Amino acid sequence: MNAVMGKILWVDLTAGTCEVQEIPEKVYEKMLSGMGLAAYILYQRIPVGADPLGPENVLGFVSGLLTGTGSLMSGRWMAAAKSPLTHTWGDANCGGSLSPAIKQCGYDGIFFTGMSPRPVYLYVGHGKAELVDAEGVWGKDCRETEQALKAQYEGKTVSVACIGPAGEKLSLIAGISNDEGRMAARSGLGAVMGAKKLKALVLQGAHRIPVYDEARVKQLSEGFNRWISFQPPFLNGTLMGLLGTSMRWLPLQMRQDGLLYKVLLSKWGTVSMNQYSIETGDSPIKNWDGSCAEFNFKRSSSINPDRFRERELVKYHCYSCPLGCGGMCTIKKGSKEETHKPEYESVLAFGGMLMNEDLDSLFEINEKLNRAGMDSISAGGTVAFAFECYEKGLITRDDTGGLELTWGNTAAILKLVDLMIARDGIGDLLADGSRAAARRMQKQAEAYAVTAGGQELAMHDGRNDPGFALHAVVEPTPGRHTIGSYLYYEMFQLWTKVKRLPKVRWLFYPKGSKYTADREKAIWAAACSQFTDLINGCGLCLFAGLVGVNRLPIFEWLNAATGWEKTPEEYMQIGLNIHLVRQAFNAREGLALKAPINERALGRPPAQKGANRGRSVLLEELVPMYWKEMGLDETNGHPTAAAMAAIGLPELVQAPAKAA
Questions:
Q1: pLDDT digits (tens, 9 = 90+) for 164-186
Q2: Could you check whether the bond before residue 605 is cis, i.e. omega within 30 degrees of 0?
Q3: What is the pLDDT of residue 288?
Q4: Nearest Cα residue to 457 out of 466, 469, 447
């Protein structure tokens, strides 16, 4: 087989054993690797009704099919398990160095089952795989853990994925860290590691990844790199904010081209969109109850992207990425203490969501959460929930230990983050996210927990782009922003390669057209779901997809790397296969495949001011149309027996086992 290693590693934490399983080539042809391989394995091995924090849950770490083949921007790895936060299919996606390390160790994935009686870490390298006592690093934060483990092994090829205090304390919003702060943050999978007493993976391999046509892959990568390298000099952060202001006032929406976004990512990283998103209504403010009218241009200048660039010491790139949107920054001007450049999500979750204008605090919070191994999106959403509950009198000073949870109170925000990480005082209530906290409080508190299916929504407002709201409720992992939206469909430009898909025809179109529920919107959303699952099967970065398939040679790379001769339509079908299996996982658990979402995020009632005033999302009309375009049951979203059989893997249609 080409492009894959053809086997996975099974680690039984209860027995302390490691075994190798070969994967048939047909599985890769139907499901790829990455997310597809994880779906194939977990669907068969996790019994129905398994406790997410129990021994029957399976935690997988998977690399992508294109990782290591010479294809650019293919360095993403994924963790997957049954989510303890949502009790649905759970996954989390991360860059860094772990994806190639998995394949260089000779595997396409590493899967853990059972529970260790004591803290351990997995070491794979030099032809062996073994569980090693982790008592010496248990209790350390993510950065300390990685540094300590790397010091034990010689060579530059060591990659570490680990949990920090949040995962050890079973916080349901805990993530998994790689490269001292890159975070597979969503779904609470750090808590799964903590429950299994698995502190870390330490990978050190040198296997070569086989490629069918290396010369063709190289040629395609060189062509794509020419698109990535283009960088105009004239843009600055203030101009980006003013562009957002003008777009807010215009009655027309501009069709987005990913080449412009690439330019912004290369210069500033994801923080390039900070002020633009606030001005256009993309970023929620004040726990989704405010707007740019309150966090206005003067206030949001505190997070002007140029202010982050001023702190940047050095840019960095994920594996095989020529873009380099990451960077290391000083936490405070003039200090020697460093942190990863905060991402857009982290900045807005602890900026506009909390009416916080203190730039230093955003860097400090970013480092605290990275070291703790806690999801910044869910943490920020939960802190905003607590602040609103305090405002409404559902939380008092007695509950907070004297903290005044008033909007913009930076000192209180910092202290509350510390308490959540330590599970101390009110932090113990909040450490499992806003839905869990609300359920332990008075009934009306749930109105202020802005989640979909129990996962805090990211900093992209469905009242601005209804596609974000739609995908938040219909995807197997609810509450996610990295799957699809109307904006993503415009930027993917799939119609240039998949001829059945409709083109977004005009450079400018009326804004109001976004808020109609029609079949074309459902087609866009279905195409996004299929294409993003394809990307995640390849190990590609979402940002690569947003450059547009008219420039990103994803279909051509796949054929050159594997030797297959599949069409774009056939690859989109593979993306659908991956989605079907993940969705079937939820269906057999008896879950509603339209996740419940906070009404505030749908504009019910509509906002009275700001960019999204008067807007509502017609979710009830959109969801069944989306299910129909995906070939799902229109009444409940379940994958049909015929659709599952059409995947061509009989083992996926057998009756699942039930938890003991």
A1: 999 999 999 999 999 999 999 99
A2: yes
A3: 98
A4: 469
Instruction: Spell out the long-range contacts of 632-637 with Cβ–Cβ below 8 A and sequence spacing 24 or more.
Output: 632/583, 632/593, 636/592, 636/593, 637/474, 637/583, 637/587, 637/593, 637/594
Task: Find out whether 367 and 343 touch, Cβ atoms under 8 Å.
Answer: no
Place of tokens 């900026």: 351
Residue written as token pair 């790895």: 77
Query: What DSSP state is assigned to residue 382?
Result: H
Residue 122 maps to a domain: yes
In this structure, the answer to whether residues 171 and 303 fall within a common structural domain is no
> Which residue, 323, 222, 218, 208, is CA-closest to 267?
323
d(CA 554, CA 575): 13
Beta bridge partners of 31: none
Residue reference for tokens 């949040």: 166
**Cross-sheet strand order for the sheet of 338-340:** 312-316, 326-330, 338-340
pLDDT of residue 234: 55
Domain range enclosing 195: 7-204
Q: Are 287 and 180 in a shared domain?
A: no
SS3 content of the chain, % helix, strand, coil (to 5): 45, 15, 40
Domain final residue, candidates 174, 204, 234: 204
6 three-class SS: coil
Distance CA 520, CA 47 (A): 38
Bridge-based pairing state of the strands 455-456 and 451-452: antiparallel
pTM of the shown model: 0.96
What pLDDT score was predicted for residue 232? 62
Q: CA 442 to CA 427: how far, in whole Å?
A: 17
Other Cβ atoms within 10 Å of 299 Cβ, number:
18
What domain count does the chain have? 2
End-to-end alpha carbon distance in the chain: 37
Q: Are residues 287 and 199 in the same domain?
A: no
pLDDT of residue 105: 97
CA distance 286 to 353: 4
CATH for 140:
3.60.9.10
Residue 568 lies in a domain: no
How far is Cα 111 from Cα 114, in angstroms, rounded to an integer?
Answer: 10
Q: What is the pLDDT of residue 233?
A: 59
What's the confidence (pLDDT) of residue 580? Answer: 98
- Show the DSSP H helices in 152-201 as ranges: 165-168, 189-195
Last residue of a domain, one of 149, 182, 204: 204
Question: Which pair of structure tokens corresponds to residue 264?
Answer: 């912004």
pLDDT beneath 70: ranges in the chain: 155-156, 230-237, 249
- Facing residues of 253 across strands? 509
Query: pLDDT at position 85, please?
Result: 98
Q: Residue 9, by phi and psi: left (phi above 0), alpha (psi -120 to 50) or beta?
A: beta
Q: How many residues does the structure list for the chain?
A: 660
Residue 91 near residue 535 (C-beta atoms within 8 A): no
CA distance 553 to 565: 14
Picking from 16, 244, 265, 248, the residue whose alpha carbon sits closest to that of residue 117 is 16
